[in-house]
Amino acid sequence: MMKALAVRFALVVSCGLMMATPAAAQFWQCAPFARSVSGIALHGNANTWWGQAAGRYARGDAPQPGAVLAFKATARMRVGHVAMVSRIVSPREVLLTHANWSRRGAVETDVRAVDVSPEGDWSQVRVWYGPTGGLGTSTYPTSGFIYADQAPTPTAEPMQAPLLIAGAPTVQAAG
Question: What is the rounded CA–CA span in Å between residue 73 and residue 79?
């Protein structure tokens, strides 16, 4: 029940985001944005979310709509990254909704992420990157997925301004 509510909440927020106008765009960091669309009530830098989720939320290595994928910190991404799973395309491909990835402060909806880990456990991913118009050339380490189904009932935080939605590609599942 909570999982369905979290996914429904995320979809409603995402639909609202698509009606935003660039003139009144808000600058988003990934963590506050992920919290607002997933209902997962964690705070602080993205690289702390995995540890904070222990004992509060279920965690694992299987994607689920509404779950948050927690990226580890790297030399180029010092505070990590978090992104919500919008949809599962295949066991090794999902669509993510996240902020502050391709363009500073911008929100991207339904962008492709692919599991490139040797074990198929989502510990390494490649993510669609706007400037190249496809999967980026970097592989990013992840801790796994934080599941929203154990999240407390989300409280709608008032949005200060509409959001800028960066152009996202249309993804078709491979046949």
Answer: 5
| CB 148 within 8 Å of CB 68 | yes
Q: pTM of the full predicted structure?
A: 0.73
CB atoms within 10 A of CB 130: 17
Q: What is the pairing mode between strands 93-99 and 107-115?
A: antiparallel
Q: What's the pLDDT tens digit per position in 20-44? A: 444 345 789 999 999 999 999 999 9
Which of 119, 107, 89 lies closest to 166 in space, CA to CA? 107
List strand residue ranges (DSSP E) for 38-106, in order.
59-60, 68-71, 81-90, 93-99
Model pLDDT for residues 117-131, shown as the tens digit of each residue: 999 999 999 999 999
- Give the integer Cα–Cα distance in Å for 55 and 97: 25
Q: Is 104 exposed, middle or buried (0-12, 13-18, 19+ CB in 10 A)?
A: exposed
The answer to whether residues 163 and 107 touch, using CB atoms and an 8 Å cutoff, is yes
